Amino acid sequence: MSSGEVIKRAKYKTSVKDPGTPGVLKMTEQKFLFNPNDPSSVTKLDVEFAHIKGNALAKSGEAAKAASTAKVTSSTKVASEKSAVSFPDEQLSTAEMELRMNLLREDSELQKLHKQFVIGGVLTESEFWATRKKLLDVDNRGKLKQRVGFKSTMILDTKPMADGRTNKVTFNLTPEIKYQIFVLKPAVHQAFLNLVPSKMTEKDFWTKYFRAEYLHSTKNAITVAAEAAEDEELAIFLKEDNILAREARRKIRRVDPTLDMEADLGDDYTHLPDHGIFRDGTKEISETQHEQYMRTLSQDLNRQGAVVLEGRTVDVDLEDPRTVAEALVRSRQELDGDKTQERLDRLSRMTDIEDLREPLDHPFAPLCIKDPRDYFDAQQANALKTLDDARNKMEQTKRNLSIDEAYGSLRDSISKIKTMGLSDPIVKPEVALSVLNGLTQNISSSKFQLGKNSRESILDALDVHTGITETFLVFISYYYNISSHKVDDVQVSRLKDAMSQTYRQLEEIKESVQSDFRHKVSLLVRPMHQALDAAFQHYDADQQKRSSKGEPLNGFV
Amino acid sequence: MPQVRIIAKNFMDMVASLPAMKLDNLYSNAFICEAILRSLPPLAKKYVLQMLCIDGPISAKSMQEWVLADGASKHKVAVDRLLQLRIFTETVDRKRETSYRLNPVFQSNLQKLLVSGEVLPGEPLPSSITARLPSLEELDVFAIEQWECFMLQLINSSQAERPSNISSSTMKVFQRGLLTQRDKEAPRLTESGFQFLDRGVDPADLISFLLELSFHVTGEAYNISSLTDIQRETIKDLADLGLVKLQQGRKESWFIPSKLATNLSMSLTDSSSRKQGFVVVETNFRMYAYSTSKLHCEILRLFSRIEYQLPNLIVAAITKESLYNAFENGITAEQIISFLQQNAHPRVAERIPSVPENVTDQMRLWEADLNRVEMIPAHCYDEFPSREVFEGACEFAREGNGFLWEDSKKMRLIVKAEIHKNMREYLSRSK
Amino acid sequence: MASAPSKLYADDVSLLMVLLDTNPLFWSTSSLPFSNFLSHVLSFLNSILLLNQLNQVAVIATGYNSCDYIFDSSVSTSRGLENGRMPALCSNLLQKLEEFVVRDEQLCKEGSENGLASSLLSGYVAIMNAIFSAQRSMVPIDSCYLGSNNSAFLQQASYITGGVYLKPQQPDGLFQYLSTVFATDLHSRTFLQLPKSVGVDFRASKEDSRKDGRPLESRRKDSRKNDPNIQLASSV
């Protein structure tokens, strides 16, 4: 953070076990300062970053999060001591801090505002960020990133390579494939956890696995059954995956009984030759006797599809199958817990590919009137006054002219035009000319204003404009929440000062431009003035009410 | 329903080419003002409207103020058209500032239209005089029959069911003028089409008569005696085309405008062409036309081989031979393609391209096959007195954009025929 | 809130939808007499129909108690003029308008004066919904406002839908405003600069709670595909 300054409540620890001295840690670009709450305490720190020669990460998780454990060489007493600073829990985590810093780094506009208002002391850090909660929402920022998914090729069909001379076949196995096998086949996954390395080596495990696969590919159910009977471990791979079967049964129970599976019967592509699948499901004759050793193509396909759609759930180094397997267990447990919903959400998000999504800033304003009553309640006070005026006016006109008479005159006008015809000329030529000239003038002036060749002065005004919006936003938020926020008058008046300063700035901008453009600039500046005026007006009114009632008041007048 | 359309561009060019006096005369007729206003580009319409109530001139600069950068060309087109038609008159003052004002006659006519509405041209005859008038449907049928018969005759005289009374000389003019457009579904009156109607008639009179005719009410009877002699002559030709139906009563005779006539002024705006297409072309060069019209069939026959004819469907194939036939008749591949595109069936019209690309490309290629030899009328010069003269002549021909070929050894030069005259002058000067 | 993106039009064919405020209380206090106002508006409607034979116009009168269609060019086809004084369009429209005013007056006598607040609320929702719908279907709403203050609703409506908001400075030149700005077809609008309101006055929305006359004139344009494209012009 090039322009940043962070103030945090913190504890100063000389060792991990030290309960620590509570105080305030202030970090600027160049140095950090620690002031203990108890002014008599001696543990003060004033270290310039330039002096920090290295840092050691404390082992304690909490302390590790803290910005740094620094080894410092300086004239202070603590210089060579191992020191740790930790933030109290309600404070920001490092991750959040980093996020904010990143945001500021990425957005120079934001940085400018931050410098002006937070460093300038107008707003506190939390006030500044309160209006930008959206930016801080990590979930929205991070999770929408597209992830690399699984390949959709059938990993279960990993083809053995035969060298042709000997009777040996070779299976190629990569960490990626191992991971995928774990995901696809919970039974294999389970077996791996149970057997490796306690009962067999990893190599033996995979050899057995692929032997089973090879047997499957021969499609000789009798041989399969025979082999399975001989080798208990091999049988694990050859049998139907119990975990999957259990899940499947659970799913079947949840299927809407009205669903007509028969209807989809004709929708297969198996009659097409070379349809990209190595196996041909129609040729898989089933022998009831050995059914448990047969895997149908549709089962494999379904499982593959489910896994690919679900995507990666484990984010660890794939090199070590043991870690992968364990991580997978963890992620499965998560799944069983209440995270299921979140995962489902993620699933739906992932099918929505980021690149293809339409931009979030939709050109349309959302058709959402949350509750018009809110709007009206807020407006009521102001409206009432005008309403009264309008009523008075109406009453007045009613006195002067009853509604009957009004209708009467309206009807007279209509019959008048019916007998007289349209006025000819429609518009007097001189009026028409002056109207057209007026409009043209309006056009040429607004053209400049929109102009691509905007003068610097206008840019300046725009610059100030963002500043105003910033203070204004915060001001408004206080204004409407004064009682709940328990904001002191000092804070509000500080804001007010900042705003009046921008007011002056606006005036200066207006004065500084050449007279030709002054009109245009003032057109631009006027709405800002109006907004500021309104804000001050409300503030003053509020102030008065409060002083008269002696208590803080909600913003609504 | 076929549409007789005046091609707005050609027609308005023709109007614009009228001498100033005649144009001003034309504008004394309110209908013509209306028809011409409608024919203008959108921006030009807006300019007329916004100056309708203003007496004096408006500076060009102030008009320009309203135009955004990408509208500059549209603005220029609009103002040019207005100037051509003398709806705008341009004045340049001492400061060299250009300004425009509206043609006063045009202006007051439009104002009148807005304020007091339009007066119908001529009163229709009361039903007591006329015998039973044809119903609107009957009139439509009559108009279509006449028009199709005429078109069929133009395309293929043997196909016409009954001999039409259109004279052969008339046919010839039409074949020259109209035939280039014949593969368009909506036949159009082109400038040369007008030449036929012309026959010694003042074009301004003709234009105003045609436009006036278009403002008559369809199906009403109008007395022929209200027409001038020339108009009476013209209206007979128009009856042959189905634009009007002539009827004879005991004493009076009258004409009944058909839809073809009343749509004439509408056709001035190009945006009115919203007809339904009927042709589907497949990538295998097969063509399906959902139409009952004999005319459509004949039009398709111009460039394709008709294979089956069902009550409401024509199946045809585009072949090399059929296309060569069309090319020989002077129809270009572009014309055929644009015909197919314009008349694409709504189902395929949404697609881009509406006609398969392989078909259009092949059609262009076949056409290009025929055009390997280009003929340019030319003159050959030889026996130059000196090399200087020869080289000068070559240079002269190049500058005049008429140079075709030279043989510097034998000092021979071939130039385009159009610069022959200049070349001769040049050579006689250089002697 | 961003202004709506505009659609591209290949031609200048328009469907114009005009809302006329015929609130008698407003017109009895207006500086521009109602008959003059009608004269300007009728000439404007005529000119729209004159510009392109495919143009269509529909007019809705909004009275004190009710509103109703008073003209639809797709229904009345008669050309020419009636009793020699004005185009047939005008006499048809005026006839309907007169009937409408009588009906509206009748309603006024029947109905009691109910509270303003409730109608205010429903009015707000209805107007905002109309505006957002127009924005969705890319129908610009033009507003021509003749009242003394600016109308925040109409300003917002025009701003949101990409239409024009105009408050004529010289009401006696109304036709000139209408023909210069509001008659501009949507095709031409893509390359013309029309008056832009400089910054919508946000404070104004607080003042806008009167129920009295806010005559609008709305205008819609129709493209080939029949998607309505409202332009709203208002006038009081």
Describe this entry's structure for a reader.
The complex is a heterotrimer of chains A (557), B (431) and C (236). Chain A has helices at residues 61-65, 94-106, 108-119, 125-130, 133-136, 138-142, 175-184, 186-195, 202-218, 221-230, 232-238, 242-254, 297-310, 321-336, 340-351, 372-400, 403-420, 429-450, 456-485, 489-512, 515-549, and strands at residues 6-13, 21-27, 31-36, 45-48, 52-55, 70-72, 84-86, 161-162, 169-170. The model of chain A is unreliable at 55-90, 263-289, 359-388, 450-459, 482-486 and 551-557 (pLDDT under 50). Chain A is 56% helix and 7% strand. Chain A is α+β, with helices and mostly antiparallel strands and 557 residues long. Chain A is flat and about 110 Å long. In chain A, the strands form three sheets. Chain A has a five-stranded antiparallel beta sheet. A two-stranded antiparallel sheet of chain A has the order 5-6. A two-stranded antiparallel sheet of chain A has the order 8-9. In chain A, helix 9 (202-218) crosses helix 11. By secondary structure, chain B is an alpha+beta fold. Chain B has four domains: 12-116, Arc Repressor Mutant, subunit A (Orthogonal Bundle); 127-262, no CATH class; 275-371, no CATH class; 378-430, Alpha-Beta Plaits, CATH 3.30.70.2610. Helix content of chain B is 47%, strand content 14%. Chain B contains 20 helices and 15 strands. Chain B has helices spanning 8-16, 20-26, 30-39, 42-50, 60-64, 72-84, 104-116, 136-155, 168-177, 191-198, 203-214, 229-241, 259-262, 294-301, 320-328, 333-342, 346-349, 357-370, 387-399, 420-430, and strands spanning 5-6, 58-59, 88-92, 98-102, 188-189, 222-223, 244-248, 253-257, 279-281, 286-289, 305-310, 313-317, 378-381, 403-407, 412-416. In chain B, the strands form five sheets. In chain B, strands 9-10-12-11 form a four-stranded antiparallel beta sheet, with helices on one face. In chain B, a hairpin with a 5-residue loop joins strand 3 (88-92) and strand 4. The longest helix of chain B has 20 residues, at 136-155. Chain C has 236 residues and is of the alpha/beta class. Chain C has one domain: Rossmann fold (3-Layer(aba) Sandwich), CATH 3.40.50. Chain C contains eight helices and nine strands. In chain C, strand 8 and strand 9 (228-232) form a beta hairpin. The interface between A and C is large, with 63 and 71 residues.
